Amino acid sequence: MLTIENLQKSYGQCDILKGVDLRVEKGEILGFVGGNGAGKTTTLNCITGLVEQDDGTIIINNVPKSQSLDYKRQFYFIPDTIQVFPNITAYDWIHFVLQLYEETDHTKLQYFMNVFGMEKSIDKPLGSNSYGMLHKMALITAFTIHPSILIMDEPLNGLDPLAVVAFKNCMKGYVENGGTIIFSTHLLDVAEKICQSIAFLKDGKIVLHERVEHLLVNGSLEAMFLEKQANEE
Known about the structure:
Layout lengths: L1 E10 L2 E11 L4 E5 L6 H9 L6 E6 L2 E2 L3 H5 L2 E4 L11 H11 L5 H10 L15 H15 L3 E5 L7 H16 L3 E5 L3 H7 L2 E6 L2 E7 H4 L5 H12 L1
Parallel strand pairs: 3-8, 3-9, 6-7, 7-8
Antiparallel strand pairs: 1-2, 1-4, 4-5, 9-10
Helix pairs in contact: 3-5, 4-5
């Protein structure tokens, strides 16, 4: 599904990624965890093409990153900061993105608008919406498209409790229908409950990649994280 080999990225003299290797299988929910500056967002940005790596290969569904258009249609990315055109409506923005992915199922779009309670806000200018509402818009778009891989950077930021419940239910249905999810998070308790596997990134390398049930044999994910941080220092 997703294969990353020897991913490297530097900014000037600062090495951010120092040889990241990762494989994520179809139908898997993988949580990307690590401290601030570990390289989580840079890795996601390299996968999605927002940043070009210095070295290494990234392949999704046997399509290499070099095949730009075909590659980008394999995933949908929700960044931690959502940039929008403030004067267009959420409805127009969603339809614009759906056209890029050649998605025309408006019944499915209406379903997810109802799930996230966006019926009354969908015709308002994006500039009048809160971050949480913009995040809901991005999630509605993602689940309507149903790409092979959904990639998210801190996906729970700004969501109210009802939206969090809706998000979790949509994730469950998405992977049951063959989707794959990769997301970064600092909320270890959430990752413990949602994810099937965890990749722990520290100082630009993945130092642990394991199934969640195996990690919880000796305690919580939080305890594992603290122990791994201490051992790697």
